Amino acid sequence: MRAPVKVPAIPPAPTPVKPTWGLRRALTWNFKTIFLLSLAAGLAAGTASALLGYISMDYAVYSVGMVGLAALIAITGQAERVLLAIILLDVPFALDFNPLYDPFFASVGAITGYNISLTTLCLPVLYLIWLMKSASKANSAPALPLFPKSALWLPILWIVFNLLSILAAESPMMSVYSLFLLIQSLLLYIYLVANIKTSADLNYILFFLFLGITLESLLMIGLRIYGQSFSFAGFNARVDPDLRVGGTLGGPNTASTYLSMLLPLCSSYFLLVRQHKPILITLSLTGFVFGVVALFLTLSRGGWVSFAIAMFLFLFIILYFRRVSAKILLLGMFILALLLLFQDLITSRITGFDAGSAETRLYLMDIAFRMIRDHPILGVGLNNYALVMLSYYANYNRSVYLTVVHNDFVRVWAEIGPGGLLTFIAFHIYLIQRGWAAWRHKDVLFGAVALGLMVALIGHTAHMLVESFHGRVLMELYWLIAGIITAVSYQNRTHLDSSEAAP
Prior knowledge:
The protein is an all-alpha fold and about 500 residues long. Helix content is about 65%, strand content about 0%. Strands 1-2-3 form a 3-stranded antiparallel beta sheet.
């Protein structure tokens, strides 16, 4: 009998190694990492020592920062994610360069000059990487996903009305300044909608949003204690003589808007997302705790009201749907303790002398409606309100503080006409509706993010009735939130990749 032939055993297939990115990969100590870190440190130290003696501190810091950025991209191998992180942090920590800046028109609320920011520099590179990736995948789906038509045609219609208003503009160049920022914000919106595809993508964005609000809030608290504004390497940290804190966001009203729009997101993540990543839950909590304190220090009544409306709606919704936890009680006790701590400050701000601020808003509304009456179709032109306002102000028989009307809806109506106003309102309602639809979806992470941003937009609607928001920071923040809500809403209709990677 022939002996059986021994068949060599087939070795088991190696277990696939999940690719890592970001800080996790940077902390993988291999030869390449050590070499690149050493090279980056040497270049940074050499650059600093060589430049400090010849140019200003600001340019030296920029040079060292660029070397560090190049090293970070080389180490992580994730240029796209690094650039996106810079854009997200560029909202609170604005580092802008503004050619053709006009101090007078800027002081009365107009956008002047070409606002060049880190976002301006990073967006073209992001789009280039996106297009190169799409071109390299011959059999892949189109680069721009087929998300709901209203996610694109409403913003495009908004751009069209802005362009049409330039025909009536007294200064078309002023309109171009604003259009430059608007197109930049729209490009960021499209990129987010097309590239937030998984929970890992969303967590990455949340990490830097939570990190940004935490650091900005700590800076604002420190400014209040220090009591003086300061500048460093192009960053301007502001605290007014009456100790109203604006941080690096500009004025106190701008800072309060930033905080009141992201605080509901922090609380929603902290309370509703069950499978927490430790670093994200920590940052969402610190962002909320320090952010609420910083919001009180802005002394912005509009920001307080916006935050109160958003949090009331948020708590009502989660209690109605029985998403109750002990954390709600803890956050409620914390807010109550802050109200008791700042009760004198809040009372004096609400009931004290406001230097005619409320009365001035009524006069500014009267001027705005006169402008609407005289320019009923195309308005006075995008970003031309401040310019045209001068002729109305000259004929006004009252002493009115010279500034753009403190109502975003009325400003849009006066500048762009009724078509632009209706499109603006329609898109705002669309975002709220999309947020509600995503909140009701079974995916907890996407639903929690949608709910937090939806109530933030509702609260912001009340704030827009008493303030005007069209600067670079707040415009970019609004379209950033719009992009996240739209992406979350769309991805809730498809199969979600449940795999997540830590930032």
